[in-house]
């Protein structure tokens, strides 16, 4: 069934600049998230938030060096990891959470879901998780018909993978040989349910893809370089007209399902192990240090620059006004 | 009488009915060990075990479809949708199957399904987690629709729903879960029949027909109006299907002025049907055209700053009552 993707990655094959970019983007995502949680505690954010901390490598690795603005992206409902990696301005994301007109929704407000940035191919996400599967084959079909070589990438959790539309979508993707990449962010839990309690596949979720004749694999989602490599192969395959790929990327949430979740249903030792030994940022930083690619104060500088960028983004989002009542009547029809 | 929250009342109702026989099964996302995202199914897994109380995959159409299949083969399923909005996912099963399966196959099967779903705006949950979809199913013959506004009604209606041999859609407003009200001790069992409205406040000047959270808002508005010497009657239909027309019409006969208040968007909301029935059957009792208050006919924005523009307010209600009286 699904094979575990492995590759002997040579750091020499990467420029230092690219490696530092991977680090910077991961840190940006984490700090974005931490600051958002702070804003939530200050009572400024509507709705619930599902933190993406602990899975930054998955999104940065798959997106940053592989996807262009014109490639289509349907993000997951966990964190803003994919949107940030695809380059959506931070002030616009904060604006959506704060409900100011700086946001992509111009003040309607959006949580993780419902931000969109079509100039960067970010086409939104359903509040009903898993409903993006069918929409994604539609945009992949467009790309095929329009001969654009645009790739569609759809992210979803292990839980969303139990939605019925996954199967309808995989069937289309296989049948019409569509340029689409499914990236399952398997963090083992869907709210309180472990994936093996709610999925009939015993080994891997990616095994389902076999039945639809779709290339598939399982990968360590917390290894940013492996994620980059595996996605690159999938993107190339899609661009060559060789059709869809299903990637199951393994990771784990550092925080509960939503802010305020007791998170007492996971094995605390397991959680500790993921946090201490399998943190994508910590491990990547150590890799660069051990291989003498960077020294400590280079990371410090990046961290400080990112802190600054985030503070500016929040300031911009916060200083933008909230809309008045009229806003709710705008934009229903084209 | 003791006072408990609507959450506690529903939990009690579920426990009591699950206790009555072992053919009742309860399932949905995170309803087992976790006890449900709104903590409504707490303790059931521990009491009744993992076969009768189980977590399902995130697969709403399968949840509802499976409930139907269980029901026609002797079980009495009590599935939960995590959000009422997700009826959209299981629309075929809810709209085309639950209410029609028995009828279209000649009427020999029974469909004792009680589908629970939380509804309503609460805390900026946005366009896909805040809706009140109940009116859609007034257009689906064969299903009952319960929509309680108090802990007492919630428990009594839920127990009746579970014992009914037809499908009941049971909608719970999220902002009501923590509201308290009088409920008899567990040993004093009571049931509330489906199709029986409740006059929450008697009055002679204007009839307000309200559901769910808006019953509470209407009662508050009625208190304000009482200070001005305006005597408002507030009626909660409690079930939209069957609809207790008699109680509504006799109030209309008494007051001649009607305001319908609900959180559903106004166009095509349950108030549209209720207003139509009043105009069909009591037009000449009316002293003023029927008024309706609902949320605007646009998707619900996520922003907490905008949410109040959607939720009918006490002020809208008092203004509308004044307009009815001045007509
Ligand atoms: C169709 C649908 N069902 C249920 C929910 C409620 N819900 C939101 S997130 C979630 C769990 C998702 O788990 P998973 O896909 O594994 O992603 P994770 O949260 O673990 O990242 C659930 C049940 C929803 N939003 N949409």
TrEMBL record, chain A:
Domain Dehydrogenase E1 component, chain residue ranges per copy: 25-324
Species for this entry: Salinibacillus xinjiangensis
GO terms classed as biological process: pyruvate decarboxylation to acetyl-CoA
Keyword list, A-Z: Oxidoreductase, Pyruvate, Thiamine pyrophosphate
Cofactors that this protein relies on: thiamine diphosphate
Gene Ontology terms, MF aspect: pyruvate dehydrogenase (acetyl-transferring) activity
Pfam families cross-referenced by the UniProt entry: E1_dh
Name assigned to this protein: Pyruvate dehydrogenase (Acetyl-transferring) E1 component subunit alpha
InterPro entries: DH_E1, PDH_E1_Alpha_Subunit, THDP-binding
TrEMBL record, chain B:
TM region(s), chain numbering: none
Pfam family for this entry, one: Transketolase_C
Swiss-Prot/TrEMBL keywords: Oxidoreductase, Thiamine pyrophosphate
Cofactor: thiamine diphosphate
InterPro entries: THDP-binding (IPR029061), Transketo_C/PFOR_II (IPR009014), Transketolase-like_Pyr-bd (IPR005475), Transketolase_C (IPR033248)
Domain Transketolase-like pyrimidine-binding: 4-179
Source organism, top-level taxon: Bacteria
Gene Ontology terms, MF aspect: oxidoreductase activity
PANTHER family from the UniProt entry: PYRUVATE DEHYDROGENASE E1 COMPONENT BETA SUBUNIT (PTHR43257), PYRUVATE DEHYDROGENASE E1 COMPONENT SUBUNIT BETA (PTHR43257:SF2)
Name under which the protein is recorded: Alpha-ketoacid dehydrogenase subunit beta
Organism of this sequence: Salinibacillus xinjiangensis
């Amino acid at each position: 069934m699904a094979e575990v993707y492995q590759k002997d990655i040579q750091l020499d094959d990467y420029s230092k600049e690219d490696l530092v970019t991977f680090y910077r983007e991961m840190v940006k995502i984490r700090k974005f998230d931490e600051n958002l949680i702070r804003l939530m505690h200050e009572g400024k954010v509507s709705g619930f938030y599902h933190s993406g901390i602990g899975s930054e490598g998955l999104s940065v690795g798959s997106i940053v060096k592989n996807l262009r603005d014109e490639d289509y992206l349907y993000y997951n409902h966990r964190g803003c990891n994919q949107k940030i990696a695809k380059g959506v301005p931070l002030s616009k994301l904060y604006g959506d959470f704060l409900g100011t007109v700086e946001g992509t929704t111009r003040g309607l407000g959006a949580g993780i879901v419902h931000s969109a940035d079509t100039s960067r191919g970010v086409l939104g996400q359903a509040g009903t998780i898993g409903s993006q599967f069918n929409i994604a084959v539609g945009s992949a079909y467009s790309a095929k018909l329009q001969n654009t070589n645009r790739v569609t990438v759809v992210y979803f959790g292990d839980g969303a993978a139990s939605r019925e539309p996954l199967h309808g979508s995989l069937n289309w993707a296989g049948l019409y040989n569509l340029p689409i990449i499914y990236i399952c962010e398997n963090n083992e839990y869907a709210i309180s349910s472990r994936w093996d309690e709610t999925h009939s596949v015993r080994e891997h979720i990616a095994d389902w893809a076999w039945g639809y004749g779709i290339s598939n694999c399982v990968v360590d989602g917390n290894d940013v370089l492996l994620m980059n490599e595996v996605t690159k192969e999938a993107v190339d395959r899609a661009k060559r007209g060789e059709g869809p790929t299903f990637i199951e990327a393994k990771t784990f949430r550092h925080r509960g399902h939503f802010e305020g979740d007791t998170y007492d249903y996971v094995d605390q030792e397991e959680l500790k192990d993921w946090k201490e030994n399998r943190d994508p940022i910590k491990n990547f930083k150590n890799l660069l240090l051990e291989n003498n690619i960077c020294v400590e104060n280079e990371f410090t500088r990046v961290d400080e620059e990112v802190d600054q960028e985030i503070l500016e983004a929040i300031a911009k989002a916060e200083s933008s006004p909230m809309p008045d009542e009229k806003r709710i009547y705008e934009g229903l029809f084209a | 009488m003791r006072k408990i929250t609507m959450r506690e009342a529903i939990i009690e109702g579920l426990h009591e009915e699950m206790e009555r026989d072992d053919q009742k099964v309860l399932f949905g996302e995170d309803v087992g060990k976790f006890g449900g995202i709104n903590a409504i199914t707490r303790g059931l897994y521990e009491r009744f075990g993992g076969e009768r109380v189980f977590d399902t995959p995130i697969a709403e159409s399968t949840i509802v479809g499976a409930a139907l299949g269980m029901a026609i083969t002797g079980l009495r399923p009590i599935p939960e949708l995590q959000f009422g909005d997700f009826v959209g996912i299981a629309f075929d099963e809810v709209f085309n199957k639950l209410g029609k399966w028995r009828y279209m196959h000649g009427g020999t099967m029974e469909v004792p399904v009680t589908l629970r779903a939380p509804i309503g705006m609460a805390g900026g949950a946005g366009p896909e987690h805040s809706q009140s979809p109940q009116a859609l199913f007034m257009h689906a013959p064969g299903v009952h629709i319960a929509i309680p506004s108090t802990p007492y009604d919630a428990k009594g209606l839920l127990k009746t729903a579970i014992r009914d041999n037809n499908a009941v859609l049971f909608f719970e407003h999220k902002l009501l879960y923590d509201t308290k009200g009088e409920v008899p001790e567990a040993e004093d069992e009571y049931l509330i029949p489906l199709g029986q409205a409740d006059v929450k406040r008697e009055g002679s000047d204007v009839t307000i027909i309200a559901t769910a959270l808006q019953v509470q808002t209407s009662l508050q508005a009625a208190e304000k109006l009482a200070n001005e010497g305006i005597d408002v009657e507030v009626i909660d239909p409690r079930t939209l299907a069957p609809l207790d027309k008699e109680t509504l019409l006799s109030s209309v006969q008494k007051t001649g002025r009607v305001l319908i208040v609900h959180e559903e968007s106004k166009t095509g909301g349950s108030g549209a049907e209720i207003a139509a029935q009043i105009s069909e059957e009591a037009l000449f009792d009316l002293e003023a055209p029927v008024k309706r208050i609902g949320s605007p006919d646009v998707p619900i924005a996520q922003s907490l700053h905008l949410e109040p523009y959607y939720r009918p307010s006490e002020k809208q209600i008092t203004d509308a009552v004044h307009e009815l009286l001045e007509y």
